[in-house]
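[Discussion] Sanity-checking designs against the backbone

I'm trying to build intuition for which residues belong where. Below is a structure token string of 278 positions. I'd appreciate it if someone posts a full sequence so I can compare it with mine line by line.
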């Protein structure tokens, strides 16, 4: 596997390094610069024979994103942030792009990503969706969607729960309640669920027993979270029929409580005040 990391505090060396790979194949290209990645960089990307995965740790302009969509070999795109206005972007050439990971995209950005013809995984943080936009995204055959820190109304959770293809779902750090969780349990195919830092309470977890395919669950929140009573939660968690991995974050567990969980769940990962226990 060919992995190339380009990191520079001066744009010129970064450009010179990219030029060295003209006509070659790169499995994973990582770019990190002290300034925004502009078309100066991305024009050179088009001269590389093929790139499978591109990770940009610096802000990227929206006009530079247009170049990324013209890399026909690109399958995975990880972006830190998009900056500066740009023209509407044609996504028709990005036929192999199936995974997008981006923080704080605008609604306009999300409309662009929703037009990707073969998108199967959408990972985003801090997104302000509209109901219509989310519905358009869910119409795609997504298998994974992560919406951590995004605004989600009850109607939006209902739209997500209509998916028959999503197996991996994160609604962490949203306003999800027990009512929303009940809607999510309509997704019988669900295997992986992150409800960290939500308003879900211990009694609400009982309904997760409906998810026969659920093997991973993440719960907890920031230190001092008030919603989840772990003593009550344990009695619900051990009833989830095929749960094999549980991540508990910033909830204090006694040795007895941890032992009780481990009797029923193969892998329990536990963190409290940065003290990690496996």
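Best answer:
Here's mine. Compare freely.
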């Amino acid at each position: 596997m060919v992995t190339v990391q380009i990191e520079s505090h001066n744009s010129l060396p970064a450009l010179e390094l990219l030029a060295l790979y003209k006509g070659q194949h790169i499995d994973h290209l990582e770019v990190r610069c002290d300034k925004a990645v502009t078309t100066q960089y991305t024009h050179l990307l088009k001269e590389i024979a093929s790139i499978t995965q591109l990770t940009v740790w610096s802000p990227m302009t929206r006009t530079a994103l247009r170049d990324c969509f013209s890399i026909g070999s690109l399958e995975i795109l990880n972006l830190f942030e998009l900056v500066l206005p740009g023209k509407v972007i044609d996504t028709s050439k990005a036929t192999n792009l199936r995974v997008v990971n981006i923080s704080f995209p605008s609604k306009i950005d999300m409309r662009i990503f929703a037009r990707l013809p073969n998108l199967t995984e959408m990972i985003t943080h801090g997104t302000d969706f509209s109901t219509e936009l989310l519905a358009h995204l869910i119409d795609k055959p997504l298998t994974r969607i992560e919406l951590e820190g995004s605004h989600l109304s009850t109607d939006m959770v209902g739209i997500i729960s209509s998916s028959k293809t999503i197996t991996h779902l994160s609604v962490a750090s949203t306003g999800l309640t027990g009512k929303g969780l009940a809607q999510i349990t309509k997704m019988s195919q669900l295997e992986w669920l992150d409800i960290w830092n939500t308003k879900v309470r211990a009694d609400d977890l009982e309904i997760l027993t409906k998810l026969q395919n659920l093997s991973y669950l993440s719960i907890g929140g920031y230190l001092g979270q008030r919603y989840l009573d772990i003593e009550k939660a344990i009695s619900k968690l051990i009833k989830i029929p095929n749960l094999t991995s549980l991540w508990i974050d910033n909830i204090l567990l006694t040795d007895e409580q941890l032992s009780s969980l481990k009797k029923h769940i193969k892998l329990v990962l536990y963190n409290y005040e940065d003290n990690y226990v496996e």
